[in-house]
Amino acid sequence: MRAFRRAVAVAALAPLLALGVPAVASAATPSPTAPGCEGGTDEYGDPLPCELELTVISPICDNDVPKLQYAVDPVGTPNTTVTISFLKDGVPTVVYPDQPLNGTVLWPGAVEEDGVGVDWPGWSLVDGEWVEGDEYDWVRPSVTVQFEVNPTATVDVAYPPSTPQCATSPSGSDVLAAGPTTTSRSDVLAATGSQALPLAAGGAALLAAGAAALLVARRRRQDA
C-alpha cells in the first residue's frame, strides 16, 4: 500500500516537469538529529519504515504576499509537527520550526503589513524606487525546501509568479501572466499562484486593464 502511494506521488510530479516547473522531491530519509523514528508494522503486519510524503507543495500568492502552502504525511513516527527549512547552498537558512503537518508559511524575504504584501525577495526600495537585489536573491526563481519530521524530505519549488490579481514583485517589475490554479496530489501538484486564473477569449484587453489597475493601486499604497 505504501509503495502504491509513493508511486502516485511520483506520478503527480510529472506534470510539473512538463510545465518546466522545478518540483522534484527527494527520497525521504531518517534524520539522525530528529527523534521519533519508530517504524512499527501496518495493518497487514508488514514492517513500516520511517517515511515522509509531500502531498501538497503549492507556491501561492495571497494579497500580494508570496507564500508556500504544504501538507506532509509522515509514517513511522509519533511526531505531529514539521520543521520547514529554506536551503541556501544546501544549508538551512530560513527555518520555521514546529509547524503543523499542513499549513502555509511566508516566503523568505517577503514582508506583509495588515495582511498585504509590502516587500518582496530579490528587491530593495532605494530612494523611493524598487531596484533588483537584496539578501534574499537566492529564493528566486526557485529554492530548495526541506521538510523534517523524521524522516526528512526535500523539494525544489518555483517562486509564485505575479498575475493580474496578485503581485509577487513590485509594480511593473514582472510581466503579469496567468497560470493554472492550485490543486493537491489527488489531482495534480501545482507550483503556481492560487489566485492565477485562466484568461478567456479577448484576454489581452483584460490583462492590460488589470495591470493598469494594479499599478495605480500599488502607487497609491506607496504614496500613502
Structure, described:
This protein has 224 residues and is an alpha+beta fold. Helix content is 17%, strand content 32%. The protein has helices at residues 2-18, 203-223; strands spanning 51-61, 66-75, 82-88, 91-99, 102-106, 111-113, 116-119, 123-126, 129-132, 142-148, 152-158. The strands form four sheets. Strands 4-3-10-11 form a four-stranded antiparallel sheet, with no helix packed on it. A three-stranded antiparallel sheet has the order 1-2-5, with no helix packed on it. The chain has a two-stranded antiparallel sheet with strand order 6-7. This is LPXTG-motif cell wall-anchored protein.
**Share of helix, binned:** 10-25%
Q: Indicate the overall shape.
A: elongated
Number of domains: 1
Order of helices and strands: HEEEEEEEEEEEH
Q: Strands of the largest sheet, in order across it?
A: 4-3-10-11
Low-confidence stretches: 1-27, 29-34, 175-224
Arithmetic mean of pLDDT:
71
SS-based class: alpha+beta
The gyration radius over C-alpha positions equals: 19 Å
Residues in β-strands, percent: 25-35%
- Distance linking N and C termini: 57 Å
Major β-sheet, in short?
Answer: 4 strands, antiparallel
**Helix segment count?**
2
E-strand count:
11
Organism: Cellulomonas oligotrophica
Keywords: Cell wall, Membrane, Peptidoglycan-anchor, Secreted, Signal, Transmembrane, Transmembrane helix
InterPro entries: LPXTG_anchor
Protein name: LPXTG-motif cell wall-anchored protein
Please tag this protein with its features.
alpha+beta, 2 helices, 224 residues, three-stranded antiparallel sheet, disordered N terminus, single chain, 17% helix, membrane
